[in-house]
């Protein structure tokens, strides 16, 4: 029972929901952009104060009040029309046939839309097209009656503009709006337009030929003038090109020369600046070096001064003081030995004096004695120069020829030369020529002997 009750409730709820949806869908009206919904049954006041028994919905949605309002829709889409008018008399009594197309629609602006509602509500599209077509064709005949065939044919824009102005008032009364109107064809059965066309064509052809001839003459004249102007222009152009080329070359050469000069000046300035910078760098480097050497020399001088002071102190400690002590000791020792040396010297002086007296009293023989006494010592000193030389033996090779050139003769002859060389060496060493001294003594001795013999 409970399940059946629940099922019944569900069915009732579903039916209720379905009914509500159907009611809402029937009462909720959605208006598309290309249509207008008219809800009739309730009065509303317009902007001019008048009252109407409907309200308008343009786009969006609205809810219809059931039993009070009735909804109707009017399309705002364009309605194309084909207009065709025959035997429409123009100004001057010439019948014309005109074919045109037009696009009309319901005018949605207030209060013109009210005219459309009053006239076309619940009307079909075909009925609206028929009414609009009849209205436009009547307006078309009225406009043709005010224009000549030439005006209609030559200025179709003016014709269409006059037709739109003429039809606009009538269409607004109907609640319609003319969007576009185009004239497609204009003709007549009497051949009037063709005659006008042929006349115009002949005039146009004649004018065209005359214009062509004039244009040909003008063209030839213009061509000749153009050629002349062209030649002149070419000559002027060549002249200007040459002059421009010369001026350009001159300017280029001048600029090149100026550029080279500037480059050289800049290079010279660069070299000068470089030399100045090098000079400054060398000077600063030399100053730094001199300052360094000066500082090093000053430091070395100070160190040397310190070393000198230290050396002086060390010298005084190691040399001066011991030397002073030794000097005092040597002085004392010398004073002790001086007495003995003085006595020996005085004795030797006395002996020398006696020897000198003896040599002087020897009547020239004393010098010989002195030389003979000194001779062994001199020879001993000379022999010491070759004392380290050992001669084992002397070999004499005789050539066998005998005579003065034999080996033995040469050896014997070398002995006097060796004696003379020895005497020269003694003279060189002592300043005394022994041979001359002996000869002088011998010469002095012989006169004395002769004198003594004569005295005897």
Explain what this protein looks like in three dimensions:
This protein has about 450 residues and is α+β, with helices and mostly antiparallel strands. Among the domains are: about 25-75; about 75-190, Band 7 domain (Tetrahydropterin Synthase, Chain A, 2-Layer Sandwich). The chain is built from nine helices and eight strands. It has helices at about 1-25, 110-120, 125-145, 150-155, 155-175, 190-360, 365-385, 405-430, 435-455; strands spanning about 30, 35-45, 50-55, 60-65, 70-75, 80-90, 95-105, 175-185. A three-stranded antiparallel β-sheet has the order 3-2-5, with no helix packed on it. β2 and β3 form a beta hairpin. α3 (about 125-145) packs across α5, α6 packs across α7 and α7 runs antiparallel to α9 (about 435-455). The longest helix has about 170 residues, at about 190-360. The radius of gyration is 83 Å and the shape is elongated. The chain starts with a helix and ends with a helix.
Mean of residue pLDDT values: 75
Number of E strands? 8
CATH topology title of the domain at 77-190: Tetrahydropterin Synthase, Chain A
CATH class of the domain at 77-190: Alpha Beta
Low-confidence stretches: 449-456
């Amino acid at each position: 029972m409970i399940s059946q009750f629940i099922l019944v409730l569900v069915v009732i709820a579903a039916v209720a929901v379905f009914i509500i949806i159907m009611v809402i869908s029937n009462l909720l009206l959605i208006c598309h952009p290309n249509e207008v919904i008219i809800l009739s049954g309730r009065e509303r006041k317009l902007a001019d104060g008048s009252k109407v028994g409907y309200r308008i919905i343009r786009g969006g949605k609205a809810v219809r009040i059931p039993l009070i309002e009735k909804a109707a829709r009017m399309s705002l889409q364009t309605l194309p029309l084909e207009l065709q008018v025959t035997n429409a008399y123009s100004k001057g009594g010439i019948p014309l046939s005109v074919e045109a197309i037009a696009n009309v629609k319901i005018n949605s602006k207030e209060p013109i839309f009210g005219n459309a509602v009053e006239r076309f509500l619940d009307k079909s599209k075909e009925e609206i097209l028929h009414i609009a077509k009849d209205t436009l064709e009547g307006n078309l005949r009225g406009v043709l009656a005010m224009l000549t065939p030439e005006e209609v044919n030559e200025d179709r824009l003016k014709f269409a503009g006059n037709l739109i102005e003429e039809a606009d008032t009538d269409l607004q009364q109907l609640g319609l709006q003319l969007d576009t109107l185009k004239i497609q064809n204009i003709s007549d059965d009497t051949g009037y337009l063709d005659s006008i066309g042929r006349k115009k064509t002949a005039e146009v052809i004649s004018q065209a030929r005359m214009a062509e001839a004039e244009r040909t003459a003008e063209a030839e004249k213009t061509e000749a003038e153009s050629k002349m102007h062209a030649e002149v222009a070419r000559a002027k152009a060549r002249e200007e090109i040459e002059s421009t080329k010369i001026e350009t070359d001159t300017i280029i050469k001048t600029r090149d020369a100026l550029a080279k000069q500037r480059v050289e000046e800049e290079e010279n300035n660069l070299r000068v600046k470089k030399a100045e910078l090098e000079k400054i760098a060398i000077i600063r480097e030399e100053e730094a070096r001199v300052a360094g050497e000066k500082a090093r020399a000053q430091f070395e001088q100070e160190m040397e001064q310190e070393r000198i002071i230290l050396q002086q102190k060390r010298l005084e400690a190691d040399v001066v003081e011991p030397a002073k002590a030794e000097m005092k000791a040597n002085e004392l020792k010398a004073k002790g030995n001086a007495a003995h040396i003085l006595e020996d010297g005085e004795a030797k002086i006395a002996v020398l004096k006696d020897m000198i007296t003896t040599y002087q009293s020897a009547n020239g023989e004393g010098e010989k004695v002195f030389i003979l006494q000194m001779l062994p010592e001199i020879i001993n000193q000379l022999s010491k120069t070759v004392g380290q030389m050992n001669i084992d033996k002397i070999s004499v090779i005789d050539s066998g020829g005998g005579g003065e050139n034999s080996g033995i003769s040469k050896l014997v002859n070398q002995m006097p030369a060796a004696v003379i060389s020895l005497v020269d060496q003694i003279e060189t060493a002592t300043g005394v020529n022994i041979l001359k001294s002996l000869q002088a003594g011998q010469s002095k001795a012989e006169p004395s002997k002769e004198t003594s013999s004569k005295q005897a």
